[in-house]
Design brief:
Layout: H1 2-21, E1 28-33, H2 37-41, H3 44-53, E2 58-63, E3 79-82, H4 90-104, E4 108-111, H5 116-124, E5 129-134, H6 140-145, E6 151-154, H7 161-169, H8 189-198, E7 207-208, H9 217-220, E8 223-224, E9 229-231, E10 240-244, H10 256-269, E11 273-277, H11 283-291, E12 299-301, H12 311-315, E13 320-324, H13 327-334, E14 339-342, E15 358-361, H14 386-389, H15 393-404
Parallel strand pairs: 1-2, 1-4, 2-3, 4-5, 5-6, 10-11, 10-13, 11-12, 13-14, 14-15
Antiparallel strand pairs: 7-9, 8-9
Helix pairs in contact: 1-5, 3-7, 4-5, 10-11, 10-15
């Protein structure tokens, strides 16, 4: 609170300095989105909208270290800044953040991850145009600090956060209402994924390509590579269904036992292969799942093998993705891969997969939703995680059957 009071005291002088800058052209824009994977993917319409309106401007994104790989190959992003919350803690941290904004000579700051330090630092950093969301969950301190933004867009319960983003951008002349999400893969991602899939000859068919060979529909439909091997997700012997092994928020996790039960039922009913998806921290959980699956030869464990800029090359090859409401579900949605989303505690009015082929499994409990875009708990107040534990493997399998039928 002390920083807010100090800013109120010195704000007339800061506003004077900003007015003296008198700069009309927009050359540098900073977007702050320090949330994790799903939120960053849902922010990609903002990057696209800004760059299309101001094509000559440099667009810098301040991001969470865990999600930075998603931005490296985004054509609308000019620069990525990684700053952890500890970096702007205390008076020194806020001065550091303000100094960064001042030295960056930003003309516009767009705050998608609203908090007090960003509100203060944008004014201290003498940024002329300062936009922010007013969360539906916000404390008194942020409400007092919100006056330091030049414009505030209130997030209304029942509206997608992406819609709120688009409404906010209208304040700087961006009227595009395209909410389509985007993810981009690294240059070597396809080749790496192909190598992983090639390890099991049943999963992907390898077609030799000879110089001067006559084109066929089969060869035409697949992707030619420099190693004279033609590979394609369209050439798989069996469909691939991806399952997220874990979640960044442990409150939402399905657990190894339920995932294994789902896989066993799916492999009994369908001629498919299951791809386990997760980070290096999920390898133990993935192994527990594999240990409990009867048809182990139809499981491919990719946990820890791909980073976030490589993962899209695997996700786009899937027939279907199954997971709790977490980042990779939004990656699949952005790639137009059908999704079975287990909502758990999440508020689906705030944020959800928006593709036409999405089935959401949601329980009707009085405590749901308790997790919102701007207020996400990491533990269950009830202590039983009933929104997740009451979802059975049979329900998930039934959703898969509905999709396949």
């Amino acid at each position: 609170m002390i920083y807010v009071i100090l800013t109120y005291i010195f704000s007339p002088l800061l506003y004077l300095f900003i007015a003296l800058k008198n700069k009309e052209n927009i050359a540098r824009i900073l977007v702050i989105q320090t949330a994790k994977i799903g939120d960053l993917i849902c922010s990609t319409p903002v990057f696209r909208g800004i760059k299309k309106k101001y094509p000559e401007a440099q667009l810098t994104v301040m991001a969470n270290p865990a999600a930075q790989e998603l931005l490296k190959f985004n054509p609308y992003v000019s620069e990525i800044i990684i700053m952890k919350p500890a970096g702007y803690a205390g008076f020194t941290g806020k001065l550091k953040l303000a100094n960064f904004m001042c030295k960056g000579k930003y003309d516009i700051v767009v705050c998608l991850n609203p908090n007090v330090p960003f509100a203060i630092a944008a004014l201290w950093g003498l940024v002329p145009v300062r936009l922010s969301i007013m969360p539906d969950f916000s404390g008194l301190t942020f409400k007092l600090a919100s006056v330091f933004f030049t414009s505030i867009e209130r997030h209304v319960r029942g509206r997608l956060v992406m819609d709120t983003y688009i409404q906010m951008l209208r304040r700087i002349g961006i009227g595009n209402s395209n909410l389509s999400k985007e993810v981009y893969k690294s240059a070597g991602a396809d080749k790496k994924v192909q190598q992983i899939l090639q390890e099991d000859k049943h999963i992907i068919k390898v077609i030799p390509v000879k110089t001067g060979i006559q084109k066929t529909d089969e060869l035409d439909s697949c992707l030619r590579r420099n190693d004279n091997v033609c590979l394609s997700s369209g050439q798989t012997n069996n469909p691939l269904i991806g399952i997220a092994v874990s979640s960044g928020n442990k409150l939402k996790e399905l657990g190894a036992e339920k995932i294994a039960g789902t896989i066993n039922a799916l492999l009994n009913d369908f001629d498919i292969y299951i791809v386990l998806i997760g980070s290096n921290q999920d390898k133990n959980t993935a192994q527990k799942v594999i240990d409990s699956v009867t048809k182990k030869d139809r499981i491919l464990d990719t946990t820890g093998l791909l980073n976030l800029s490589e993962l899209p090359a695997l996700i786009e090859r899937l027939l279907l993705f199954i997971g709790v409401d977490t980042g990779i579900a939004y990656m699949a949605d952005a790639l137009s891969v059908p999704v079975i989303d287990i909502a758990g505690p999440s508020d689906m009015d705030d944020q959800r997969p928006t593709g036409s082929n999405c089935i959401i499994i949601k329980k009707d409990l009085p405590c749901i939703p308790c997790s919102h875009a701007f207020s996400a708990p990491y533990s269950c107040k009830r202590g039983d995680r009933l929104c997740i534990t009451s979802v059975s493997a049979a329900e998930i399998v039934e959703a898969v059957k509905r999709f396949l039928n």
